[in-house]
Write a structure and sequence with these properties.
- It contains 15 helices and nine strands.
- Helices cover 49% and strands 11% of the residues.
- The chain has helices at residues 17-24, 39-42, 52-61, 80-94, 105-112, 116-133, 150-160, 165-172, 177-191, 210-222, 263-272, 281-287, 295-304, 308-320, 325-353; strands at residues 27-28, 46-50, 66-71, 78-79, 98-103, 141-145, 201-206, 232-236, 258-259.
- Strand 7 (201-206), helix 10 (210-222) and strand 8 form a beta-alpha-beta unit.
- The structure holds tryptophan (TRP).
């Protein structure tokens, strides 16, 4: 059987989430573990993780734990997957997690050739304000740049001693120097909060980052003397491409929505999106829409409708043939417009607040 390799730097994607779960030995996400699950958890968009019970217990018993994620400052736009990550961070932050958000400037240099200066500029002018606009509480978050946190890079060097070239190739499928350096640095990121005091930590990311998490978990076992508590992770599904593909991608701009994006362009794309509507009006009324194929409903479900009852009503009307594809598209346009306008406003506010953010250095 061909083994699926998920490459955290590549764009080769695997369509079958069950296969990701099986091949990586992930835990299927169980929403009943967590109190007041958020929209992504409730609707199966969050689908897997590792060692989730450990974090659930911390929440339940009010024990200390942390949540950590990284920003790759590669462009001037973020995609909806990033929004999902921030929503996960926010969920754990609101439930008492000590929160870390790092700028992966070293990784951007080593894997994309972006200078440290440019990475800093993009982080300050765009990424951090965008994260705040999407709900991260900046006052309760510890931010840092990889290049300014020597605890992280020092850990990376320490870890390097106990990783072999073959092991690296087995996990990542290849082993370029820049990728090796980024991977050990990322393990440094994930574990450095425990240098002060060992405690559980959770890493919300796309499942493409799971190779790093696996390596990191192996390192926890290999460096027993450092007394790290094993780390947990939580993964969400991709936001699908509006043409029905697995994942939105910049290579298909007409099926890809960004943040921020001009409202008219968002609406134009939504109106062209693949729906599960039938060929004729008569059939649509009689048979209803094929919701599983409908990218507009998927966007409402994943991102634009917060209230479960409201979503259920849309589902019923669309499925029964009462609502037509053109109508659900107009509904999505309205929701998307409200969301984009609110984001733009919060983003402008956050840009002003960003000068007050202090960065951790060590
Ligand atoms: N590799 C991540 C990316 O490409 C960025 C990252 C660096 C990260 N360190 C991390 C993510 C630690 C989660 C945890 O986006």
């Amino acid at each position: 059987m061909q083994k699926v390799l998920i490459d955290p730097w590549g764009s080769e994607l695997v369509g079958d989430y069950q296969r990701i779960i099986d091949d990586f030995g992930l835990e299927v996400f169980d929403k009943s573990l967590f109190p007041q699950p958020n929209r992504l958890m409730r609707r199966g968009v969050v689908f897997a993780g590792r060692d989730l019970q450990r974090i659930a217990s911390c929440i339940k018993e009010k024990k200390p734990f942390y949540v950590l994620t990284g920003i790759m400052p590669s462009g001037e736009k973020i995609h909806f997957g990033t929004k999902a990550v921030i929503e996960q961070v926010k969920y754990f932050q609101e439930r008492g997690a000590k929160t870390f958000v790092l700028v992966a400037d070293l990784e951007a240099a080593a894997t994309r050739g972006i200078s440290l200066q440019e990475a800093r500029k993009r982080a300050l002018e765009f990424y951090i304000p965008a994260y705040i606009a999407l709900g991260l509480d900046a006052k309760k978050t510890i931010f840092y740049f990889q290049s300014e946190n020597h605890l992280v890079t020092n850990l990376g060097f320490t870890f390097a001693k106990k990783i072999t070239f073959n092991e690296f190739k087995a996990i990542y499928g290849e082993a370029e120097p820049g990728k090796i350096m980024s991977a050990v640095t990322q393990c440094g990121d994930i574990l450095f909060p425990q240098l002060e005091k060992p405690m559980p930590g959770i890493i919300p990311t796309g499942s493409d980052q799971d190779p790093h998490v696996r390596l990191c978990r192996d390192l926890v076992n290999r460096f027993k003397e450092l007394k790290f508590v094993q780390i947990s992770s939580i993964y969400h599904k991709f936001t699908p491409s509006l043409d029905g593909g697995l994942k939105m991608s910049k290579s298909k701009p007409e099926s890809n929505l960004d943040l921020p994006e001009d409202v008219e362009s968002v609406k134009r794309k939504l109106r062209k999106a693949l729906t599960g509507g039938r060929d004729t009006l008569e059939e649509q009324r009689r048979l209803g829409a094929v919701i599983e194929k409908d990218m507009v409903f998927e966007m409402l479900k994943q991102h634009f409708v917060e209230d479960d009852k409201e979503l259920e009503k849309i589902f019923q009307e669309y499925k029964s043939g009462k609502m037509l594809s053109g109508e659900i598209k107009e509904l999505a346009c309205k929701k998307a417009e409200a969301f984009m306008n609110a984001f733009n406003k919060d983003f402008e506010k956050a840009k002003k607040a960003v000068s007050k953010v202090k960065f951790f250095k060590a």
